[in-house]
C-alpha cells in the first residue's frame, strides 16, 4: 500500500515541512520508513497517536521535536494535505499512550497498543546505545521476550564482506541459547528461509527446525526479516516451547515492527560497526 508522509513543524518549528511517499503494509511501517527516508531522528517518549476515521491513516504528535506527522493511506479524503475527518482515540482511550507500559505481555486485541509501545521504546536505540550493536540488539531481544511472551530467540545478521557466507548469531536467549548461537546457511530451516526469500515465517511446528534440523523442546517459531536500505540483512527469530499454541497474526505484526526498528538502527550505525 502506498502512504503519503507529511511532516510539519509546530510552534517555533512551524516553517518546517517535508513530504514523502512510501510503500508499506501499515501506517506503523510507513512511519518508520518515512522517518528513515526524510532523515529524521525523533524523541518518542512523548509520542501521541490518533487514528483517522478510515482506520488505516494516523497523525503522530511529537511535542519534544515540535513535529506532527500525518501518515495518509490511499484514497483518503484530503484537503490541503490534512485528512478531512475527525480523529478517533486509540483503543482504550483512558490509557495515555505516553505512559503505556512497554513490559506488558501480548494478549489478543492489544496489537495496536504494543505496536505503539514498541515504536516509543525502540525509536531511540541509537541515542541509548550508540554504535554498540551487541548491546542494542540484546536490549531489543529482551524487549521482544517481554512484549511477546516468547521463551527465547535469536538475532542473525549476514556478513557484509561476504554476502554468501552463513548468517551469524549476534545474540540469543532462552533455554536453547547455546544451540541458537550458530551460523546458519541461507535457505536452511525457518531462519535460513526467511533470510533467503525475505518472507516472514509463522509456523506452529517447523519440520526442518530453525536451522535445518529440529531442536528438541522448541515448538512454534516466528521469524521476520531485518532490512537495511531496503536489502535483507538478517533475521529476528523467536520461539515457544514444544506443545505451546502457535503465535498469532498480531504477534507477527509486532515482531515485524521490531525487526524494522533493528534495520533502522543499523542504518544509523553504518556498516563499519557491524559485528
What do you see in this structure?
- It is built from seven helices and 13 strands.
- By secondary structure, the protein is of the alpha+beta class.
- It has a six-stranded antiparallel β-sheet. A five-stranded antiparallel β-sheet has the order 10-9-13-12-11, with helices on both faces.
- Strand 1 and strand 2 form a beta hairpin.
- It is globular.
- The two termini are 34 Å apart.
How are the elements arranged and paired?
Layout: E1 2-9, E2 17-23, H1 27-37, E3 48-52, E4 58-62, E5 67-72, E6 78-79, E7 82-83, E8 87-88, H2 111-122, H3 125-129, H4 133-148, E9 152-157, E10 168-173, H5 177-180, H6 189-197, E11 201-203, E12 218-228, E13 231-241, H7 249-269
Antiparallel strand pairs: 1-2, 1-5, 3-4, 3-8, 4-5, 6-7, 9-10, 9-13, 11-12, 12-13
Helix pairs in contact: 1-7, 2-7, 4-7
Short description:
With 275 residues, the protein is of the alpha+beta class. It has seven helices and 13 strands. It folds into two domains: 2-99, no CATH class; 125-273, GAF domain (Beta-Lactamase, 2-Layer Sandwich), CATH 3.30.450.
Label this structure with key terms.
275 residues; 2 domains; 7 helices; alpha+beta; single chain; six-stranded antiparallel sheet; Beta-Lactamase; five-stranded antiparallel sheet
Amino acid at each position: 500500500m502506498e502512504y503519503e508522509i507529511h511532516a510539519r513543524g509546530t510552534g517555533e518549528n512551524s516553517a518546517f515541512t517535508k513530504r514523502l511517499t512510501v510503500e508499506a503494509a501499515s501506517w506503523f511501517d510507513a512511519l518508520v520508513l518515512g522517518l528513515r527516508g526524510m532523515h529524521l531522528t525523533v524523541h518518542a517518549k512523548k509520542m501521541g497517536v490518533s487514528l483517522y476515521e478510515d482506520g488505516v491513516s494516523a497523525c503522530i504528535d511529537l511535542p519534544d521535536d515540535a513535529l506532527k506527522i500525518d501518515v495518509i493511506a490511499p484514497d483518503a479524503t484530503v484537503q490541503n494535505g490534512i485528512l478531512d475527518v475527525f480523529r478517533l482515540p486509540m483503543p482504550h482511550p483512558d490509557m495515555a499512550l505516553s505512559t503505556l507500559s512497554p513490559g506488558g505481555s501480548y494478549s489478543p486485541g492489544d496489537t495496536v497498543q504494543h505496536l505503539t509501545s514498541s515504536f516509543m521504546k525502540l525509536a531511540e536505540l541509537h541515542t541509548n546505545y550508540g554504535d554498540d550493536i551487541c548491546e542494542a540488539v540484546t536490549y531489543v531481544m529482551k524487549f521482544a521476550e517481554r512484549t511477546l511472551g516468547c521463551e527465547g530467540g535469536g538475532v542473525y545478521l549476514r556478513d557484509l564482506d561476504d554476502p554468501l557466507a552463513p548468517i551469524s548469531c549476534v545474540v540469543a536467549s532462552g533455554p536453547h541459547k547455546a544451540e541458537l548461537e550458530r551460523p546458519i546457511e541461507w535457505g536452511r530451516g525457518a531462519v535460513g528461509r526467511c533470510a533467503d526469500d525475505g518472507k516472514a515465517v509463522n509456523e506452529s511446528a517447523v519440520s526442518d527446525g530453525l536451522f535445518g534440523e529440529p531442536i528438541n523442546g522448541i515448538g512454534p517459531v516466528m521469524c521476520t526479516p531485518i532490512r537495511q536500505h531496503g536489502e535483507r540483512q538478517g533475521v529476528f527469530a523467536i520461539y515457544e516451547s514444544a506443545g505451546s499454541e502457535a503465535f498469532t497474526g498480531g504477534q507477527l505484526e509486532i515482531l515485524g515492527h521490531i525487526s524494522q526498528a533493528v534495520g533502522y538502527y543499523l542504518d544509523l550505525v553504518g556498516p563499519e560497526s557491524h559485528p
